[in-house]
Amino acid sequence: xxxxxxxxxxxxxxxxxxxxxxxxxxxxxxxxxxxxxxxxxxxxxxxxxxxxxxxxxxxxxxxxxxxxxxxxxxxxxxxxxxxxxxxxxxxxxxxxxxxxxxxxxxxxxxxxxxxxxxxxxxxxxxxxxxxxxxxxxxxxxxxxxxxxxxxxxxxxxxxxxxxxxxxxxxxxxxxxxxxxxxxxxxxxxxxxxxxxxxxxxxxxxxxxxxxxxxxxxxxxxxxxxxxxxxxxxxxxxxxxxxxx
Length: 244
Ligand code: BV8
Ligand code: ZN
Description:
Elements: E1 6-11, H1 37-40, H2 43-48, H3 50-65, H4 71-85, E2 89-94, H5 100-103, E3 110-111, E4 114-121, E5 127-129, E6 149-153, H6 162-174, E7 177-181, H7 193-199, E8 203-208, E9 220-223, H8 226-237
Helix pairs in contact: 4-8, 6-7
The structure holds ligand BV8 and zinc ion (ZN).
């Protein structure tokens, strides 16, 4: 990383775990425990039961709004600033929909799967930023045309935003270091980015509490909590010319 000219980072739900947000795979806690996120995060589920699906997403939006960035987010914001100011390109890509990277000060952030805080009208297509209080009725309706609102996230079997996945693939192909942090590396095309980086000669590292399908193929597998490992990584870089 000290000698890098371009660092690309991709994060998953594991970087928000220490903020108190359940990871995607264990997203179903409490009253949602009986539902499978893989079933609810689909256009089919929304079409079949828009009230249930919009309730789940609004519940998650309110939960994320009540949580704060943790040292993993804060360290990535610091790294983005230090690398960028020392002339090294730093691209932050996230699969997360919780906006915690932005709340920690990271900018820009490539959101591959959208955000819980943007909602879109299925009638007129109008997008609105939803912050603050929960909706009053489910499914929520559009102020402009009365149509049904959906969360501005990418569901399974939906295309990723072209600009986001295009920028992410460009950054994976151009970087000399690729960090995969807190993702189970099972959802595509996001999970394919580390392979694209490796193919183009980048050194690859993974920070994860557990083993994942890429743990055996990355150059470095740093096992443990992102909120502990990232600050330690920044610390270890601090005697570099990039004056961390
Ligand atoms: C698409 C938003 C084209 C909604 C999400 C091959 C190529 C292309 C597509 C496919 C393909 N094969 C299969 C597909 C289809 C599918 C797919 O990948 N399925 C999987 C299940 C096999 N992909 C799609 O449908 C994508 N669309 O490709 O369009 C197309 C069109 C039509 C037909 C076919 C293809 C769309 C995918 C986007 C889905 N939306 N989220 C919402 O949030 O509700 S994905 C969702 O799961 C999350 O957003 C996240 O992105 C993703 C993975 O979750 P993770 O972030 O990795 O979280 P997870 O809980 O899984 O893991 C957490 C990790 O952190 C764990 O490893 C854990 O150990 C670790 N951890 C925990 N705590 C810590 C920690 N690590 C460090 N520190 C800690 N403290
Ligand atoms: Zn509308």
